[in-house]
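Re: beginner question about structure tokens

> Can someone show what the tokenized structure looks like for a real chain? I only ever see the sequence side.

Sure, here's an example I had lying around. Input first:
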Amino acid sequence: GMIGRNYLDAGMGHRVCQIYADSREWDDKHYPDGFFDTALIDGGHTPEVVISDTRKALRLVRPGGLILWHDYCPDERVYEQMETTRGVIDAIRADLDFIQSQVEQLFWIEPSFILVGVKRE
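And the corresponding structure tokens:
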């Protein structure tokens, strides 16, 4: 009940499409390429799910739009202590060549747990 509460309370629900599904099973073909301005990836935290989320988000976000990954923190102490962070970091590392081919910029907002990619024009 609290997920999405802030944007709903602010009257912005019409501007957000929150997807409650495993992206490996979610049929994204109902949305055209570049449909979204921004995608926040914060679902499953296994590398397989994060890679699936990432690949779908990269197709669905418009050129110049943003892809944000939550639970990204490359600090080794955090990586060792937090399983969710390990899954996200491992996925980004495993799929980095593809991600970099799709984004103009990729940067960590230090010291947050957010990685940002700007979709290639």
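Each token stands for a local structural state, so reading them left to right follows the chain. The two ends are 37 Å apart (CA to CA).
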